[in-house]
Amino acid sequence: xxxxxxxxxxxxxxxxxxxxxxxxxxxxxxxxxxxxxxxxxxxxxxxxxxxxxxxxxxxxxxxxxxxxxxxxxxxxxxxxxxxxxxxxxxxxxxxxxx
Length: 98
Description:
3-stranded antiparallel β-sheet; 3 strands
């Protein structure tokens, strides 16, 4: 049973890593269109349709939220692959140049 759980965990984490890679690829494609390569987070969330309801149907949430984008962006930040900044109520991200 424990081996199956580990395998499932590894599979899920691999899928999340792949999602991060795809998100970063999308951000890099959009960077040339923006000053200093800062891509508006709303453009990424909208372009990739990453807004979802984050709670079970029996719970209450008002509308879709960008929790998936925020999670993936944070994972990329922790890996040193994405920068994130906020200006007022707007958020931006860009890839880290090596």
